[in-house]
Amino acid sequence: MIDKFRIPPSYIGPLLISAVVIAAHLSFGVLDGWEKFLAALIAAMVTELVLHKLVTGKWRNLSSAYISGNSAGILVRSPMIWPFALTAAISIASKYVFRFRDTHIWNPTNFGIVVMLLIASDSMAVLSIQWGSNMWAMLMIWIVGFFVISKVKLFHVCAVYVLSFLAFAWVRTLFNDSIFLAEIAPLTGPMYQLFVLFMITDPKTTVSTQNGRMFVAFLIALVEMFFRLGEAVYAPFYALFIVGPIALIIDILWQERKEKLAAKDELATPVKI
Question: Where are the domains of the chain?
Fold first, then answer.
């Protein structure tokens, strides 16, 4: 009987994130409204169901869409409901439209948010300091985040990004004549917690090697520095939007080249009788 009620591993992350969202909202009001959050969730899951059925003819597990819907529902800020739903729908649709070698190359939520900032910036914004200094909310995000990234073994990505961000924050002080603490302050905000723990560590859109993932995290922080020097408010999202797909395409091509060379070596090796 116990086995019948065992939670599938793919649902552990979504359930933990749901628990955090509910607890954090009831305690600190972190959401822009339950109806907006649910609009993002429903839009993500319906889009996933419809597109996957149209493309493959099969029904899909919705855990990935559920996570994207949660992310959109948390990160988007707007007085209207439609930006939440449209962000989530665009996020999921990107997985089926923008593909390379049958692999989607953008983190879905990152793609949806950047596109919405480009086409509807007058109607929506992204979560930044709206949670104030509620450290309990931050603590809950870190607990869930560490649990999730420990399962996928991607803590090194977070570590390299944070260390790179700190180093480039110091570099920015040389250009801006600013205070170091002011430059690193965004790292403690809720937007960055979600970005570091859940977006740049997306297993589906990270490169295949550990060294490669660390280098990509460094590059994201580097590109973000230039956006910040240009006073771009949502610099990390823009940086990931540019660096992520380029790195993934290069990684896919590199892996294909290695496989071809290995196949040639195998054919060239004389067979001993």
Answer: 8-268
